[in-house]
Design a protein that fits this description.
Layout: E1 7-12, H1 20-33, E2 37-41, H2 45-49, E3 53-56, H3 83-95, E4 100-105, H4 107-120, E5 124-128, H5 144-165, E6 168-173, H6 180-189, E7 193-195, H7 203-215, E8 221-226, H8 234-244, E9 250-254, H9 266-284, E10 290-295, E11 298-303, H10 304-307, H11 317-326
Helix pairs in contact: 1-9, 5-6, 6-11, 7-8
The chain binds adenosine-5'-diphosphate (ADP) and 6-O-phosphono-beta-D-fructofuranose.
Residues 15, 106, 130-132, 174-176, 227, 260 line the site of 6-O-phosphono-beta-D-fructofuranose.
């Protein structure tokens, strides 16, 4: 039976994340499999405003599953935050006869989608695509696993040289409001301490910990600092620690945007494929204003509203406790 929905568009928005291409591929091919006309919107919401919307066929998404970035490009589009921008975007959707939209992005993308959907009655399904893992309703967001793997690979290399020189390294990882990357990376890399945006850790507490490590013959130490930590970034923390511990040979590494790139892990390729497939099936089933997400090992729908609510629970408590125990 032919689905009621005829034309679906997909876009990627906000910070890119490895696995977005896997999701795009799954969205396009699932739609085509069901006889739906599929479209790609270039540069996120920017492309809705400039009418940069192009038809996509099954071959247009060949050989992209293993690629980082996004073939549809992405953007942070300020105009879409205005009523005028949203109106132009809606007129362009009508012009192209689009009756379903799949948005792949983070909390900003979802906030925009919610407003747009509510205002114009557009059927929207969200796919959580951000390395930050800062959305409710999905245990993992797309790109989070790959980003952690990238961070660990880098820290392993830094550990070699830190150990050779008996140095103290401060490594800054991404996450303006979310300590998820920092926390998981600290467990997987055996870091001596981790500083997160969600948890107050004073420099004195950190110094106490490092002192204990030095007293018990730790040769090198690694402190992971999430970029959103309230006491400042890795350079600030390193400077403050150095004020007290002049004898420490301290170094700082900011991992930066390398955390966003690279070939997606098998986990993110599979997750992107599952979420893309589920997003189109949700639209076919008449769903709207929902996000597809992974809970346990099942793909479930959560309202976009709920996905945007408090996500601090995603910082795993047992990992928090473990960092202190395992780093003695
Ligand atoms: P992410 O989706 O990764 O969190 P951003 O916060 O940059 O990235 O959001 C992506 C885009 O979503 C923004 O550039 C903007 O176009 C749109 N957006 C964000 N907040 C709103 C809002 N309140 N109203 C409309 N659009 C929004
Ligand atoms: O939201 C994903 C993210 O990578 C954050 O971790 C980081 O703070 C931000 O994007 C960086 O954004 P930009 O690429 O615009 O500098």
């Amino acid at each position: 039976m032919k689905p009621n929905i005829k034309n679906i568009a997909v876009l990627t928005s906000g910070g890119d994340a490895p696995g977005m291409n896997a999701a795009i591929r799954a969205v396009i091919r699932t739609g085509i499999y069901h006889g739906i006309n599929m479209f790609g919107v270039m540069q996120g919401y920017q492309g809705l405003i400039t009418n940069n919307i192009k038809p996509m066929d099954a071959r247009s998404v060949s050989n992209i599953l293993h690629l980082g970035g996004t073939i549809l490009k992405t953007a942070r589009c300020l105009e879409f935050k205005t009523d005028e921008g949203q109106e132009i975007a809606y007129q362009n959707l009508k012009l192209n006869d689009i009756d379903g939209l799949v948005v792949i992005g983070g909390d900003g993308t979802f906030t925009g989608a919610k407003r747009f959907g509510e205002k114009y009655g557009v059927k929207v399904i969200g796919i959580p695509g951000t390395i930050d893992n800062d959305l409710g309703g999905s245990d993992f967001t797309l790109g989070y696993d790959t980003a952690i793997n990238t961070v660990i690979e880098a820290i392993d290399k830094i550990r070699d040289t830190a150990d050779a020189h008996d140095r103290l390294f401060f490594i800054e990882v991404m996450g303006r409001d979310s300590g998820c990357i920092a926390l998981r990376s600290s467990i997987a890399s055996g870091a001596e301490a981790v500083l997160l945006p969600e948890i107050e850790t004073s420099v004195d507490e950190l110094i106490e910990k490092l002192t204990l490590g030095a007293a018990t013959k730790k040769s090198s130490s690694i402190v992971i600092v999430a970029e959103g930590h309230k006491q400042g970034g890795a350079y600030d923390i390193a400077r403050k620690v150095k004020e007290t511990f002049d004898h420490y040979d301290t170094k700082v590494t900011i991992l930066g945007h390398l955390q966003r790139g690279g070939s997606p892990s098998s986990f993110d390729r599979i997750l992107g494929s599952r979420l893309g497939y589920a997003a189109v099936n949700a639209l076919i089933a008449g769903e709207s204003a929902q996000m597809v997400g992974l809970r346990g090992n099942d793909i479930k729908l959560t309202s976009i509203e709920e996905a945007l609510s408090d996500h601090s629970y995603k910082l795993e408590n047992d990992l928090m406790e473990m960092t202190d125990v395992l780093s003695i």
